[in-house]
Specification:
Pfam families: TPT (PF03151)
Helix content: over 70%
Oligomer: single chain
Main location: membrane
Radius of gyration: 22 Å
Organism: Ectocarpus siliculosus (Brown alga)
Distance between the termini: 9 Å
Strand content: under 5%
Subcellular location: Membrane
Keywords: Membrane, Transmembrane, Transmembrane helix
Structural class: mainly alpha
Length: about 350
Amino acid sequence: MGEESSKAMLRVTGVIAQYWVVSISLVYINKFILSEQSAPIFITWSQCIVTCVICWVCGALGEKMRETQSGATREKAEEGGHAAGKPSPDSSFLAGFPKARYDRDAAIKVLPLSMVFVLMILSNQLTLKYVEVSFYNVARSLTIVFNAIFSVMILGSVVSCRTIACLAVVITGFIVGCGGEVQLSVLGVQWGLISSVSVSLNSIYTKKALPFVMNDAWRLTFINNANACLLFIPFVIYFEGAMLREQASTGTLFSRSIVTGLVVSGVLGFLMGIVSVMQIRVTSPLTHNISGTAKAGVQSIMAFYIWDNEATVLACVGIFLVLFGSSLYTYVKITEVQKGPAKVEGGKPLLPK
C-alpha cells in the first residue's frame, strides 16, 4: 500500500515537473516573439498549425512502427518467441502515438473545449504582450478563484469557509501586485482576468472532452488544435490581415528569428498541451491550476533577473501573497479530502488509488 502511494506520488511529481519546465520555456520564448512581431493572433494560429503538423508526423511514424513491430511479433510467435498479440518489450514512444485523424463527430463534441482553448491561448498571449514577464504571474493569479466559482456552478461542488479565506489571500495578492507594478498596463490586466477565466474553464472542459476521444491525450491534442486552426482564421483575416500583407510585401513577415521562434514555440506548445492533459489526468483540474499558479510565481522571480524587470516591494509582496494563498489553498483542499470523500472540485482524487 505504501509502495503504491509512493509510486503515485512520484508519478505526479514527475508530471508536474515536466509541466513547469515546458511552461516556463514557452512563456519566455513567446515573450521574445511578441516583442519582435506585432501580430499575436497570427502567432498563436501559427503555433496551433505547428502542433497539428507535429501530431500528424508522429502519428504517421507511429503507424509505420506499429506495422513493423506487428510483423516482427508474428514472426517471433511462429518461431516460438513472443506470443501473438503481446506487445514488444522495446516498443517506443512513437509506437503508441495514434494516427492523426480529424474525426468530424469527435471534433464537434470537442468544439466547446476548442472555443475555450482559443480564448485561453489568445488571452495568454495578449496578457504577455502587454505586461512584464514578472507581472504575468499576478495578472493571471485569479485562476484558482474562478476555478472554485466554476466548480460550484458547473460541477456542483461545495466551497468551505477556509477555502474562501485562502482565495481572499490570493485576491489580496492580485490587488497588491497591481499596485506595485511600475509600468501597469490596464489592458494587460484585463486580458489577464480573461485568461484566468478561460484557463479555469479549459481544465474543466478538458476533463469532459477526454471520453470523446477514447481518453487519448494525443487524439485530443490534434483535434483540439485542428479546431483552433479553423476558429482562428476569421480573426487573423479581420484583425491582422492588412498588417500581415504589408509585412509580406516588405519581407519582414518571415524573418529568420521569427520563423525559428515560431517553430520552437510550436514544439513547446505541442508539449504543453500534452503535459497539461497529463497533469489534469493524474491530479485534478484544481491541482492543475494550483500547480500553474505556483509555477508562475517561480517564473516571475526568474524574470526579475532574466528580463531585468524592476522589483518593487509591493510587487514582491503581491507575488508572495499569491504563492502563499495558493499553497495554503492546496493544504486546505488536501485536509478536506482526507477528512471527507476523496474528491476535490475536479471530482477526482488528488492521487490515484
